[in-house]
Amino acid sequence: MRMSRMLIPTLREDPADAESISHKLLVRAGYIRKISAGVYAYLPLAWRVLKKIEDIVREEMDAIGGQEVLMSILMPKEMWDETGRWDLYGDEMFKTKDRKGRWFCLGPTHEEQITALVRDNVSSYKQLPMIFYQINTKFRDELRPRFGVIRGREFIMKDAYSFHTSVDDLKKTYDDMYRAYSNIFRRVGLDAEAFEADSGAIGGKMSHEFLVPAEYGESEVVKCEKCGYKATIEVAHAPYKKVNYPPSDKPIEKVYTPGTHTIEQLAEFLGVEPSRIIKSMLYMVDGKVVMVLIRGDYEVNETKLAKVLDASEVRLLTPDELDDMGLVKGYISPYAVKDKDIKIIADESVQDVKDGVIGADETDYHYIHFNIDEFDVEYVDIRQVNDGDACPVCGAPLKRYTAIEVGHIFNLGTRYSEPMGATYLDENGQRKPYIMGCYGIGISRVMATIVERSHDENGIIWPIAVAPYHVIITVLDVKKDDIMAIGEEIYEALTDAGIETILDDRDLRPGVKFKDADLIGIPFRVVVSKKTVSSGEYEIKDRKTGAIFKVSKDEIVPFFRRKLYGQ
RNA sequence: CGGGGCGUAGCGCAGUAAGGUAGCGCACCUGGUUCGGGACCAGGGGGUCGGCGGUUCGAGCCCGCCCGCCCCGACCA
Questions:
Q1: Last residue of a domain, one of A419, A451, A483
Q2: How far apart are alpha carbons A297 and A192 in whole angstroms?
Q3: Mean predicted confidence (pLDDT) in A423-442
Q4: Which chain A residues in 38-57 sit with Cβ < 7 A of strand B?
Q5: Ramachandran assignment for A200, one of left (phi > 0), alpha (psi -120 to 50 degrees), beta (any other)
Q6: How far is the CA of A507 from the C1' of B29 (A)?
Q7: pLDDT above 90 coverage of chain A, percent
Q8: A70: CB within 7 A of chain B nucleic strand
Q9: Which of A35, A227, A286, A376 could be disulfide-bonded to A39 (CB atoms 3.0-4.6 Å)?
Q10: Residues A433 and A550 in one domain
Q11: Alpha-carbon distance values, A128 to A60, A164, A166, A409 (Å)
Q12: Is the pLDDT of residue A128 over 70?
């Protein structure tokens, strides 16, 4: 393809509204353009990259017996009512009505549709297991779209669903998927690592997230570099730091603590360690109020909290709700719920604090010499693990870092088959609900993640497997017919050899063309100019290493055969 | 949803304090010189100043309403 006729709108400056590296570079290098918040158009280069990623995904899905389908994006409300998710999904779902007033949504995911398809068209255990996948556009009206194509409201996703007669059979496919995902991420050049994930209230036991470490990620993980322990922040565990605050012989005392809005301010005001302070929080847990206590030097991890309470939704009470109970945020204590039917649970770390500081249920006042033993408290692990906390396995300090979630696999059990009446007949003629698994990869997010991981100050550096083109021929003296003709000749030879090549025939100064080639990130650049033509030594530059090779014209095709295919 | 910021040519921005003919750089078009790491000179095209309404002789600028975009927060009591 001639670059002079392609839509590759590169920019000299970073777009003003971009924050993350991948967002800046994909816009600047002419890959994507914003249409609306979290909604992007993929220009020709991006679409080529996406198709490469998709093809790798297809190969790996086909290899484990996946059947590719393309489900409808527009889905009727009734389908979602069957599982109750029309209401559960809430505002995150894009909803619309047809001309007759019937409700539809733009699919944020496809469990309902695939389950309905299998229910209505498969009926015997003899046909199982079955694995389906699709690569399709998903719509989610995210609370806050971010980082360009990393979290969009419209995005490309590979989603797969499997149907089984037993958990053991599901486990086989689950393991196949795990390996396929590892292959996919390795092949696209990502150092993704699988983490046992929180599967949520409905996910069953097996669930793994595939995460790639990146500054602009939205997931947090901890890892022990000594023994290899690793976990997402939602499930991570680390022993709490022991403190020793034995009961005081002094009675509990209310003290005036003006202007202490944070734990740090209060600790400083009273001249105590933050670990001596107990934070009291009121949570709404599936409609019931629960008091949660945690030490001042720790934070509550709501996912862990939900899990220990076996709840599907936990949230803090709003200031208004607290107000209705006569309480004020920041100054709550267990005394406030003493005679009420409100359960008190505390993080394990609180048990050491027998002479502590706690809110006095009154603005600007706290109690000192507070002893937790007065209360009937259940101790559990609901702490957020921090950077530097001790590894639960070997005790070495844990590293905490951000990562991008590029894939997620999990066991669905009968969460969808049961309510939807999706059953098959087993050997004994018994109706059984399908055991299901589901598996997702964010295709457009993978593209952005590769850029986050593979770039330099000059632009993107695509791994060969996903590069939009392998080679860019930079013709410098385009107005000289003989030189341009040689550029075209090399272009034809490479293209005929199956090497994806782009011909930069634009009549621009050399510097501009070199900068663009680097920015868009093509793995190899061949320079055709007065200099290289007259010397007969064509300069080939490796975008990643910067290595320069001098190659005669006839050797160019063999050179790339070796470099690209190892032939 | 709360807080903050922004919206002026394709992109990046100034102009808003103090109302008076809409600017700069890049990009684009023409001509010339140049040309192996984002050239220079000369000329040129391109604007509902986010929208609607108001104040005013006169609004990019003041007032009101609305829309869009970005950042932070929406768990730390």
A1: A451
A2: 32
A3: 97
A4: 38
A5: left
A6: 15
A7: 72
A8: no
A9: A35
A10: no
A11: 20, 6, 10, 20
A12: yes
How is residue A242 annotated by DSSP?
P
Could you list the residue range(s) of the whole structural domain that residue A216 is in?
A: 3-234+401-451
Q: Which of A280, A298, A394 is nearest to A337 (CA)?
A: A280
- ipTM at complex level: 0.94
pLDDT in tens, A7-30: 999 999 999 989 899 999 999 999
Domain count, chain A: 3
**CATH number of the domain where residue A476 is located:** 3.40.50.800
Q: What is the pLDDT of residues A525-551, one digit of tens each?
A: 999 999 999 999 999 999 999 999 999
CA distance A306 to A350: 19
CATH of residue A267? 3.90.960.10
Q: Where are the alpha helices (DSSP H) in A137-286?
A: 167-187, 263-270
Domain boundary among A380, A415, A435: A380
Phi, psi (deg, nearest 5) at residue A72 = -75, 145
Indicate whether A285 belongs to any domain. yes
The Å distance, CA of A121 to C1' of B13, is 60
Q: Which of residues 372-391 of A touch strand B (CB under 7 A)?
A: 384
> A298: which 2 tokens?
């720790």
Tens digit of each residue's pLDDT (9 = 90 or more) over A259-292: 777 788 888 888 898 899 999 888 888 888 889 9
